[in-house]
Amino acid sequence: MVIASYFVFDYEQDDPVTQALINTLYPAYMVNKRLMQTDLTEIPIFIFNDRSSLAKYMKSSFTPWAFAQGGRDGMYFCLQSPNGTPVSNTSEAYFRGSVSHELNHVILQRAMGKVRLPSWFVEGLAEVTSNLLLRENRERSNYNLALSLAVGAIIPPKLLENNKSFYQITENTVKEREKAAQVGLRAITVDPYAQSTNMARYLLSNIPPDGLPDFLNMVRDQRNFKTAFEEYFNATLSEFYDSWLHEAKTNLSSGNYTTN
Fold this sequence. Notes:
- By secondary structure, this protein is of the alpha/beta class.
- It has helices at residues 16-36, 51-57, 93-112, 119-133, 135-150, 163-182, 192-205, 212-222, 225-233, 237-252; strands at 2-3, 7-11, 43-48, 68-71, 74-78.
- Helix 3 (93-112) crosses helix 4 (119-133), helix 4 (119-133) packs across helix 7 (192-205) and helix 8 packs across helix 9 (225-233).
């Protein structure tokens, strides 16, 4: 099944959740096109009924806490949540935002090839598209970061550069939240996705409108994010991290989570 010439679908059954995924892809594409300033080439979309059938097909491991994953080879969705329950709330902001998030991974990986990028940039940029698609995602992200800031639970940005440490921190955070929820509490802890999103938005605020492709081209040409960053912004990553943290504390302390 081909939709709008750039999405090619392969799914096991045609049901409301499958249709919701299909219907969300076009607005997600428009958000990504506006941010990334690029058109799509054909993207395979694979939708599996359960995690066992997904595991048989996937060449690499599937993110354990998510129902969606994207990369240069395409987008993968599983209609079974990590806890084994069916994915059903298709109107939920997380559901729709995840589609835009994973689509951004496809676009960015295809654009950058094998150039290594900091995980905070990769995940933060993907979350920016989710925030652009749905304002409630942006407000939730800012709120979560504000809670972390209030208790001093900020991750040293260097730890968010590495893929392994980023996902280890995420897994620990998910476990802490699940443990607290079991006794009716909310764990206020570090939030690698909210922090990375805010960092990516701060980076974007320091480049001209529609200027992201120029920066990405420089990174790709030099094949080194750190070197290209320092040349483009005339600042080190350490200086950027310090400046970001000051800005985040200033903006989010007001309690206005629709900004920044």
